[in-house]
Amino acid sequence: MSRWTRYRKKKDALNAGDESGASDLSDTEPSSDSDSDRQQPAPKRGRKESSSSSSESDDSSQPSGSGDENADSQDEEEEMHHGEDDEGEQNGGQIVDEVLVGGDPEDNLEVPNNEGNDGEAGQQGPQQDEDDDSSVDENDNDIVSDSSSDEETSSESENESDDESDESDESDVDYEGGNAPNGDIPLYANARISVMESIIMILTLSITFSLSGACLAKILELIELHCPPVNNCITSLYKFKQLFIDIGRNCLVLHYYCERCFKKLQNKNSICNQCNNETKVAFFVEVPILNQLQRMFLRPGFLEMLMFRFNGQKKDANNFEDIYDGRLYKENMGEEFQPGHYNISFMFYTDGISIFKSSKFSVWPVFLVINELNYKTRTRKENILLAALWFGKSKPKPNLFLKPLQKTCRKFRDGVQLNVPNGPPVSVKATMICMTCDLQAKGIFLRQKLSNGYYGCSKCLSRGVRIPVGRSSVHVHQHIRPQQMQLRKNNEVRDLALNKQFGYKGISLLYFLMPSMVAGTCIDIMHQIFSGLSKLLVKLWFDPSFSGQPYSCTRMIDIVNERLSSIVPPSFVERFTRTLTDRKLWKSKEYKLWFFYYSIVVMQGILEDVYLDHHIKLVSALSLLSLDSISPDQIDSAEELLLEYIKDFQNLYGLRYMGMNVHMLAHLCDMVRDLGPLWVYSCFFLEALNGQIIKLVHSPFQPALQICSSASLFLSLNTKIDSLLADSVARNFCVKLRSGAPDKKIVEHINDKLKIVGRPAFQYNVSAATIQVLMNRFNVANSHFQSFFRLRKSGIVYTSEKQQATKRCSMYASFVKDGVPFLGKIRDYVRVSTCVCTKICLCMPARYFCVVQIYERIPWRIHDVQNVRISYLTAVAPTDNVLAFTCDELQGPCFYMKTNNFEYLATRVNRLEYE
C-alpha cells in the first residue's frame, strides 16, 4: 500500500469520526512545505500531538548553543547589548518586578524546609496549584513502548516517509537456524562475522556518517543481497532497532506540559485547566539515569575505574589536581559518601543547540559527568549520562524540566542497589556537586538575571551599571577592590530567591540538587575566556572600526597573518592555523591556541608594550590555573595578576568593555580553590557532544523523536564496540571507522604506550655520528642498528627530522634525563638489537632511542613583566649539543614557532586536554 493511499484512508476515517483510524494521520500526511522550521499540522481539539515538541512561542531569543565544539558564544560587546533583564527598578537590592496575571508557574515550587539542600519536602513556599507544573507525579509518566501510539513510538525512522511500513515485521526477530538474541550465530554458513558483529559494524557506519533511517534501511537490503541466499542478515529497520531495545527509545519517559502556560499535564490528550481549548501540548524527555548507570556498572573494568580517586597518585599532596582536591568536594563527599567506594558525584551541563538555521527550534540536552572517573575516562561519551532533553522554540522552564531529575537524585541520596559483573549488588549513593554551562544557560537554570542585567553575576552582588553607547546601551561592571566585593552566600540564596532580590527571579531546583548553588556554579574557561574575552581582544586589536584607538593593530594585520601562516602545529592539534582574515570563522579551540600559544609570540613588535604586557599577565594567570597540578602559591600569584589585569583593563580599554567576562576573572581563583583546575569543568568535550547530536537530525519532520531514537545508541556506541572480541575483524573495522582518520600501521609494539608506526618503517643506514652519540651514554657496542621515522606514544605521533611532514611539525619535543628537563629536535630514532643480522630485522631483545639536538632557553619579552610566570612557553636557540634519550624519556610534543629570526618552543599547558 502506498503512503498516499494510507493517508487517504486515514483521512476518510477521520471524516467518519473514527479516532483510531486517524491517530497517526500527522505521521503520514504528505508535505508540500520544504521549510526546515515546519511543524506538524495542528491536531483536532482534544487530541494533542506529542511528536511536535514545541509550538510558536513569544520568546524570540536564540538558543545559547551552537552545534559544533563550541556554542555561538557572544563576544563581550554583543553580550552587553539588548539586555532583557533590566526592566526592574532597584531599591536597596529589591527588584520590583511586574506581576504577571496568573503568576509564574516556575514559582509554584515545593520548597524544602531544611537547609541541607537534600531535596526533601518540607515547609512550602508560595502556594501551588493542583496542576503545579514543577511537580511531576511519577505515576503520570508515559513509558514509551512499541504498543504506544504512532505519535510517540513509531518504529519507522522519522526519515523513512517514503518507505513502506514495517508493521508486518513487528514479531520476534527470528534467524535462520534458530532464535539468537545475542546474535552469536554466523551471518551465513562459514562467515567470518556473526550477526551481532555485522549489526554493530552497520551501526558504527550509520552513526559515523550520519546516515538517515531511509539510507540505513537500504544498506540493510544491500548487504543481504551480497550474501548467499541462505543467511541470517537483518533486512528490516524495525528488527535492527529491536536488537538495541535496551538502550533505544523504549527506555525514555515523556513528560507533557502546556506550551502556552507551562503547566504540567497528565498525558498528551490532557486539557490545561488554565488555557482550556487553547491548550498546546508539548513534551520533554527524561532518560532514566538509573538504567544508564546499571549498564555502566555491569561493564567489565568500570568498578576499577571508579577507584581512581583512591588509587591515583598525586604529584604533590597539597596541590589542586582534580575536583577531589577542591573545598566543595572535600566538605560534601566526606563522611557520608567516602565509606562507600562506589559512591559518585555528578557535574551538570546543559546548553541550547540550534537545529535549523531558518527556525528557532532548539534542543537542550542535560548531561551528567561522573567526577570519580579519571579525566580522560569521564570525558568519553560512553561514560557521560544523558539525563533529559527539552525540545522546542521556547527556552526550558528549569523547575519543570529538572523535577524528574530531582526525584531521581532523592533516591540516590538514600542509596540504590546496582548489579556488578562478579559478586553481590553494591550500594551506590550519588549527588550533583556542580554545574557548568555558558552565561545564558546559567542565568536560565539558576533563575537569575542574565549577564546583561543588574545583579547578573552568580558569584557576587555586583549590581553593575548601564552606560549609553550610540542608540543603545551596555551593561558593565566597574572595577571593585576585593575588600569591597560582597560575595553571594548559599545560606542566603533561599530567602533572596523567594523574595526575588539581588537578581533572582525565583528559587531554582538546582538550589536543592547541589550542596552549594553558589560555589557549585562553575565558570567555564571555554566560554568566558576563549570565545568570550579573547575573541573581544582580537576584535579590538584588528577590527577596522577601532583603527583610531591606541590599541588598534589593523595596519599590521598582514604581518600577523604572515606569522600565523608560518606556524605548523604538531600532530595532536586538531585544527590547522587560520589567519585573522578568517577570524569570524574561528572556533573556540582556535581561540584557545591563539590565546595560550600564538598570541604573545605573534604580537611582539605589533602591539604596544603596555598592552602586550597587560595581555601577558592574563595569559600567565590562566596558564597557572590550567596546570595539571596547581600549588596554593601559584593560585595566589594568579589572583594577584588577575586583579591587576582587571584594574588596568578599565584604564586601557575603557569602562565600555568591562563586561561580565572581565568581571568574572575576579572569581576564577576561588573557583579553583572550590572545584579544582579550570580544565575540570571546561565545556569543550560537552560542546563536542552537542555538535554530534545535531547530526542525529536528518529532516525537519519530528526532529525531537529523531534525536530520541538515536541519542542513546550514539552515546553507547563505543560500549558496543568494546563488547566485540579483541583483534576481531569487526572490532578493528569499527575502531578505524571511529578514529576519524586513517590509522597509521603499527609496525612494532614496544610496550603499552610506545609503538613504531608508518611506512617505510626501518632503514639500515645509521650514521657513525649517530652511533657515537648513543655510545656516549649507553653501552651499545657491537650491536645491530636500524633507524625508524615515526613513534607513537600515548596516542601522539612524533616524527624524526628525516621524515618531517609538511602539514604537521611533530619533531620537537620535551625530554627528561635524570630529573632534568630538556627541549630539542628529534634527529633520528634508532632500534638497537644484539643480533648479527646484516639486513632489516625485528630480532629481540631490542632497545629504542631518540637522538636529539638540544635547544637552550634564552631570555625574552615575558621576563620583563613583573610577577609573570610562564613556564610552558619560551624563546630558544639551537645548540651543537646532541644527546641520546630512551623513548621512555620522551615527555611530550612541542609547538615550534619562528618570527623575526627568533625561535620559540611551547609545551602543552596541561597533558589532559587535547588541543
From TrEMBL:
<feature type="region of interest" description="Disordered">
    <location>
        <begin position="1"/>
        <end position="181"/>
    </location>
</feature>
<feature type="compositionally biased region" description="Low complexity">
    <location>
        <begin position="51"/>
        <end position="68"/>
    </location>
</feature>
<feature type="compositionally biased region" description="Basic residues">
    <location>
        <begin position="1"/>
        <end position="11"/>
    </location>
</feature>
<protein>
    <submittedName>
        <fullName>Uncharacterized protein LOC117642364</fullName>
    </submittedName>
</protein>
<feature type="compositionally biased region" description="Acidic residues">
    <location>
        <begin position="128"/>
        <end position="175"/>
    </location>
</feature>
<dbReference type="InterPro" id="IPR009667">
    <property type="entry name" value="DUF1258"/>
</dbReference>
<feature type="compositionally biased region" description="Acidic residues">
    <location>
        <begin position="69"/>
        <end position="78"/>
    </location>
</feature>
<dbReference type="Pfam" id="PF06869">
    <property type="entry name" value="DUF1258"/>
</dbReference>
